[in-house]
Structures are given as C-alpha cells and as structure tokens.
Amino acid sequence: MKIIRIVTVLTLVFLSFALKAQKFGKTPEDSINCITNISLYGEFYKQANYKDAFKPWREVFTKCPMASENTFIRGAVILKYIIDNEKDIKLKEKYIDTLLLVWDKRTEYFGKEGMNLGKKAIDLLTYRPKEKEQIYLMFKKAIEIAGNYSEPIVMYNYMLSTIEYVKIGKADSSLILDNYDFVSDLIDKNMANDVKNKDEYDKVLQNIEVIIEPYTSCQELINIYNKKFKLTPNDVSLLKKITKILDKKKCTDDPLFFKATENLYKLEPTPETAYLMGKMSYAKKQYSKAAEYLNDAVGKMTENNDKANIYLLLADIYSNLGQYTTARSNALKALEVKPNDGMPYIIIGDMYAQSAKSCGDNELTEKVAFWAAVDKYNQAKRVDPNNTKVVEIANSRIAAYSRAFPSDDNIFFYGLKKGETYRVGCWINETTIVR
C-alpha cells in the first residue's frame, strides 16, 4: 500500500507537466503511464524486489525507452534476476533475448556502442556459452570499437573467447598471439595513463598470460611464425610482430629472431630496430657490432625504460671489451635515467673486482679494488632492495670478494688503519674505507 500511495502522489505531481510536455510517450496518456511505471519499478528496484519491478520496468522499456539511461542499467539487473529464477526453458530464452536487446537499445538511444557490446558479449557468454563463434565476434567488435576504453573484464573474456574460437577450428593458434599482442598493447597504454586502476590492468594482464601460456612457449611461437616468415619474409607488419613477441617472451636465441630482425632493420631502420639489432649482435657476442647499433639507437629513443636498458647493455658490452671507463660511463647514464636500478652498480662492482690485480703492484694495492667493488654491491642493494635478483647477486659477490680483502698484516705493514678513507687508484679512482 505504501508503494501505491507514493506512486499516486508522484503521478499527481507530474500530471500537469506530462500533459503539457508529453515528455514520456506519444500522447499525454502515455506520459502519465510512463511516469507512473518509472516511479513504481523504481521503488521496487530500491528494495531489491526485482520480481515485482519487472512488469512496470517492461512498460517503461517498451513505451518510453528514452526517459532515462537508468532504464537499461537497472533493466539488466532485473532481467538477470528473472532469468536466473525462471524454470521454464522457453520462457528463460525469451528473457535472455530481452536482456541482449537491452544493450542494443541502450546503444541506439544513448550511444557507447563499444562498452554496451562488451557487456552484451559477457551476457551472451554467461547464458549461451555454446555460441562460441558469435561470442568471439561480439567481443572482437567491442574491443575494436572501445579501444583503450575497453573494460579489463572484457579484455580478459576476449582472450578466453579467442582460445575457444581456435578450439572449434575457426582459426589457427596464431590468432591467439595476434589478439594477445593487440590486447597487451591496450593494457600497457592504460597502465601508463590510468594510474588509479594500474593494479587492476596489471592483474588482468597476468591472468591473460596464464590462460595463453600453452600457446606461447618458444617452440610454439617459432613453429607458427616460421611458416609465416617463409611465405612473406619482407612483410614489415609481420616482421614487427615476430620480433616483438619473440623479444617479449625471451625467445631471442632462435635463428628466426635473427632473420626477422635483420630483414626489419633493412626495410625500416628505426631506433627500435637498431636496438633489436644490437641485442641480436650481443647475443652472438659480436660486441663491437652490437655497440654500433645500440649507440645509434639510444640517442633517438624516447622511452626512458628503453634508454636505461640500452645504456645497461652498452655497459656490459664495453666491460666485455675491456673498455672499463666507457662501460662505467654508460652504467652511470643508465642510473641517470633509472636511478633505482641496482644492476648498473653490480656491473661497476664487477669491473672493479676484475681490475683488482692489474690495478696494483704489491700485496696491498692488488686487493684494495675489492673494497670499492663491495661498496658498489652494497649500493646496489640500497637503491633496489625489492629486486630479488639484484640482492642475491650482490650478496653472493660481497661474500666472495670480502674474502679477498687485504689481510690485517698487509694493512698494518703499509701503514693503514681500519676505518680510515683510502683512494683506490688506476682507472677506478674511487674513495673507499679500509677494512
């Protein structure tokens, strides 16, 4: 009775307005009827009484759909309740049809096609999971339209539907890789631009990588892309895809990566392809050649993360070439770009340790470089304490090189005292502490 009284009052309040404006419906009578049903289903909805809300909601949905976008938002909730509680199979299917129609009509009257298609695809997957082809095509269209505005749950289900689409024989497994490439790019952009929801996107990406794992082993990737490469070895789009996915999945040791990288660099010599060529040459231990490519790439790179990685790689390359001063310079440049990375300090520490004997001429000076090396390993841990790899390497090196410190007798013999400062000479030229 309370609901009836509320509806009666609201109807009287809006009656004169409705008669003049005829806002909800083609006639004044339609307007009165719509206002009454909007109020009625709204009250039931607030009480979560979706069963009684259904009939007045249906009147609004049918007679005055443009009255409010809430008609569609709330309608989806009401219909899902009705569907989940309907025992009659034929009637249930009709309600599902209505639910799917809700998303089409919402787009028709209020736009947001990509978002609504994504929600429609999720409902189709929920209530008609056997329609695998239609589900996949709907998610595909939703993602293509919404782009960066695609919801994380839609991205995840798009990849699930891609796998099912491949399983029913509608495409080969390369489609999974293609769609993963597309979706991971969208997620990367969203993680960079939407800091507030970064963790949610990161979690979705991790979940996607779990479900596609069987299709992204190095062997699987090589098998798929080798065939494509042989057919069109100069297709720039394909070459970019091959080099990107193999690099991302750390499958760079295979000859396919080398061939694709070389072809891509010849066809499109960009900083990115120069970077790939440098990594490829590094993997082959062609250090001088690798340095040429990487020095060409680093000055033109715009992404700080890429710059830091290149400087770090150059530091390791020059270290292998025995050019320690140049190596240290590049390690320090990496730190300028990425100051919380411990690996540059590890590389510098390693070079100090490797130079110890050659930088001295007696029992003391041949070992003092180990003090400076351990300083760097400790610094690596300080700036990058949450990086397990860095901490493990640093601790291992500290344990090993601490045993190579000058003995107490040598320290005393050369007139030094523990705890005082000491300048390590040679190319190192660092101040450290006697211990």
Note down, in words, how this protein is organized.
- It is a single chain.
- This protein has 435 residues and is mainly alpha-helical.
- It has 21 helices and two strands.
- The chain is elongated and about 105 Å long.
Mean pLDDT: 90
The N- to C-terminal Cα distance equals: 89 Å
Structural class: mainly alpha
Low-confidence stretches: 6-22
**Biggest sheet features:** 2 strands, antiparallel
Q: Report the principal-axis shape.
A: elongated
Q: Using only CA atoms, what is the Rg? A: 33 Å
Oligomer: single chain
Order of helices and strands: HHHHHHHHHHHHHHHHHHHHHEE
The neighbouring-strand order within the major sheet is: 1-2
Q: What percentage of residues falls in helices of 4 or more residues? A: over 70%
Number of helices: 21
The percentage of residues in β strands lies in under 5%
The tally of strands reads 2
SSE layout:
Layout: H1 2-21, H2 28-46, H3 50-63, H4 70-85, H5 89-110, H6 113-127, H7 132-146, H8 152-167, H9 174-193, H10 198-211, H11 218-231, H12 236-248, H13 255-267, H14 271-283, H15 287-298, H16 304-320, H17 324-337, H18 343-355, H19 369-383, H20 388-402, H21 408-413, E1 421-424, E2 430-433
Antiparallel strand pairs: 1-2
Helix pairs in contact: 1-2, 2-3, 3-4, 4-5, 5-6, 6-7, 7-8, 8-9, 8-10, 9-10, 11-12, 12-13, 13-14, 14-15, 15-16, 16-17, 16-18, 17-18, 18-19, 18-20, 19-20
Give a summary of the structure in a few sentences.
By secondary structure, the protein is an all-alpha fold. Helices cover 73% and strands 2% of the residues.
